[in-house]
Amino acid sequence: MLENKKILVLGLSKSGMAVAKLLASKNEVIxxxxxxxxxxxxxxxxxxxxxxxxxxxxxxxxDESFDVLIKNPGIEPHQPxxxxxxxxxxxxxxxxxxxxxxxxxGVKIIGITGSNGKTxxxxxxxxxxxLHHIPAILGGNIGYPLCDVLDKVTKDSVLVLEISDHxxxxxxxxxxxxxxxxxxxxxHLDFHGYYENYINxxxxxxxxxxxxxxxxxxxxxxxxxxxxxxxxxxKYYFNDENxxxxxxxxxxxxxxxxxxxxxxxxxxxxxxxxxxxxLVLKEFAWDLDIIKNYLKNFNGVEHRLEVVDSKSSLKFFNxxxxxxxxxxxxxxxxxxxxxNLILGGKERSQDFNELNKEIHKVIRIYxxxxxxxxxxxxxxxxxxxWKNCQTLEKAMKEIxxxxxxxxxxxxxxxxxxxxxxDKFETRGEEFKKLVEKxxx
Length: 440
Description:
Blueprint (H helix, E strand, L loop, with lengths): L5 E5 L2 H11 L4 E6 L5 H9 L3 E4 L13 E4 L8 H8 L4 E2 L1 H6 L7 E6 L4 H14 L4 E5 L5 H4 L8 E5 L2 H5 L8 E4 L7 H4 L2 H8 L11 E5 L3 H6 L6 E5 L5 E2 L3 E4 L2 E5 L8 H14 L6 H10 L8 E3 L6 E4 L6 H10 L4 E5 L18 E7 L3 H10 L4 E5 L1 H11 L5 E4 L12 H16 L1
Parallel strand pairs: 1-2, 1-4, 2-3, 4-5, 6-8, 6-9, 7-8, 9-10, 10-11, 16-20, 17-18, 17-20, 18-19
Antiparallel strand pairs: 12-13, 13-14, 15-16
């Protein structure tokens, strides 16, 4: 726990505010962010006796008098203030690492990470635990900073935490009891530099594990297998000969759980997510009727292949959470029909050629964001007509003119949203509003 320390919080957002609230009463806390803050936020910070300083990098604020730098997970490791902290031997932590030291002894922690499927797996596992009357608490990258839920946690709680690579990067003491690695593929290379760096950070989900801790690994994902060869956890596998799906249904330990046709969310990626969730659930509770009923009615998570209702004859899917090409490839695999694809966003050296296996389903591409020209070059290489729209609004106006009855309109950008939006949720919300505005 941190007491009587001078702390700089770098980057406000949800996690910065949460950690400031936690630490303010027993420490001197200063928060910095490059964005101007609203009066409500400034009043909240003032009420906590927390000083706010607007700064592009925060570098000029940090000096030898500070004890700790707590950075927003999304801030890159080579950011000037972070580098200065390291040069001054000031520890760099994040909100989740800080919160971990305030947890009561006895609490069980389930951590879920991976390149794709984190949010769906986390949501399903949390829901199923609650339906089985397990005292589960949801948190982490799914939108609930761990600091914000600490007041709900008791020694009997089961924490279900989605943990991103950005959060894992600065975790040191943090340890889970159960860790799920859904899969690995190249992404976030703008943050990590090289794929090897990225997967080594993902491996930290198993930090401090012993044989009494449990790891759940995708048997069909070679990089997941590679990095877990030497972990000390007791390993369990999904997508193997015991825990698998086929055209008949989904099986755990060789026993049929549910017919595939009865599962509401479709796609091989979702079946993998279900397998991982059920394997961990089995450690706590197992009521087959509850599980079947849940899977028959679970619609999936918002912004992940979300069906958008419209009075138009077109079919709209909001897949704004697809921030890398692998996610978009998964989306295309589930599509049955002619696809108008909205592609693009922040430049992160993503390789659109990863879409090649399913790109034959796409009849038009609408390029948006920083990578619009590269999207166009990719479309040309595949002989697919495309338009340089730059913005989502322009793309939707062009689609309204081009698309024919019963065709699919898929927002699955294979790119982060940060060039134009603060988060992928905002991009997805705009898409849904444009569907309502332009096509109803």
